[in-house]
Structures are given as C-alpha cells and as structure tokens.
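User: Structure tokens for both sequences below?

Assistant:
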Amino acid sequence: MSDLSAQFEQASKDVKNLPERPDNDTLLKLYALYKQGSEGDVNGPKPGFFDFVGTAKYEAWNKLAGTSQEDAMKKYIALVKKLLR
C-alpha cells in the first residue's frame, strides 16, 4: 500500500499543475475521490442549505460512501493521469 500511497500523494501534487482547469463536475469528482482516499467515508454534519459549494462537495463525497480508500486512491490517480494528457 505504501507504493499506492506514494502515487496518491504524487497525483495530489500533479493535480495542481493541470494544463487547464477541469469543469466543475470533474473538480467535484477529484475532491470526492481525494477525500475518500485520504479520510474514508464522509464524516461530520452536512453543510447548511445556503452553503452551496460545501453542500455540493459533501454530497459528492457522500456518494462514495462504502468505497474503500484503496479503490478511491486508484480512481483518483487514474483521473489525474487522464487530465494530465
């Protein structure tokens, strides 16, 4: 798992150097996969109704509930590699 963790950390650095800014749906997917890979299932209360960005992030992460951290890391790495092309 240490090799996967190293690839995951590298992908989290690489994502900051993407050639162009991804669309909002892709950004939410990146966020959710990163959070699931680094922390596991969503925790804490859902943000308030008027916190639209926070709510969108929470819901995107919550959709991945039950996904193993290892699978989320693999999907995150694959998505970052795809975006770097």
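Moving on to the next sequence.
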Amino acid sequence: MADLQERLKSVIEEIENKIENKDTLEFVKTQIYNLSLIFLDEIDRVSEINVKKMEDLADKYREINDRVEDIEDTVKNIEKDIYMQEDEDGEFDLEIVCPYCNNEFIADFSEELKDEIICPECNNVIELDWNKEEHNCGCCGCEGHSEDGCSGCNEDNNKDNNDDNEDM
C-alpha cells in the first residue's frame, strides 16, 4: 500500500509540474483523488466478498468434516459388529447369541478358533460356522472347489471331454 501511495504522489507531482493554471490543477487533483477512492472502494468490496466466500467455505468444511467423522464412527461401529477385534492380550472377543435360549454372551478366543462353544446359560453346545473355504456343492461329492471350479466336476468333465475327443 505504501508503494501505491508513493506512485500516486509521484503522478500528482508530475501533473503539478505540467499544469500552470491553479483552477485546472485543483480540478485534476480532485478527479484523481475521486478516481483513487473509486478503486479503493472496489478493492474493499471485492475483499469483503472474498472474506464472505472464505467464511462460507470454512463453514462448509466444518459441516463436511462433521459428516465424515459421523461416517467414520458408523464404519467403526459396523467393523466392531462384523469383525472380531483383537485386544491387548492377543485374544478376540465375540458376541454370541445362543440359538437355544437366546442368551447373549461374550466368548474370548485366543489364537485358535473353536468350532463349537458351550452356552453358559443352558449348557447346550453351539456350533460355530467360520465360513471357511470348505465348499460342498453337492454336484459330485467333492470336498471343495479350486480357482478352476469344482475339482470333482473338472475330473468328470475332463473324462467326458476325453471321451468326446476319442469319438471323433
């Protein structure tokens, strides 16, 4: 801003050196002053608009940040519900609902996942399904499927394909 004032002062000094008529000089100086006020007012107006926009952006950022935090909290809660969380001792806590008596209890598992657990309320054995990679499709009595499909079916299909090829 100091540079602007110096430049304005320099322009006015040049005008004073060139214009000899006092009335004309005063008129030109007043008009330059008025023009500079117009520019300064416009700069102030643009600055106020920018400040308002920045405040609006900051409000929107806070609002979005609050929403993201809410979503993160929800996701963490969903993860707790879906996945077992390991505690400091290397054990996993799993909430189980007994299918026989509807008793809800927490079961602690260490490194080994058990296939069954006993309900502390009704003492019935509850089988736990961990959705292991075992797959029995019922199509061939095989124990599971590889990436290529059913191992039993592939053997049968290979035999059928070989038989078809021999007939040709």
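User: Anything stand out in the second?

Assistant: The chain has three domains: 2-82, 96-132, 136-168.
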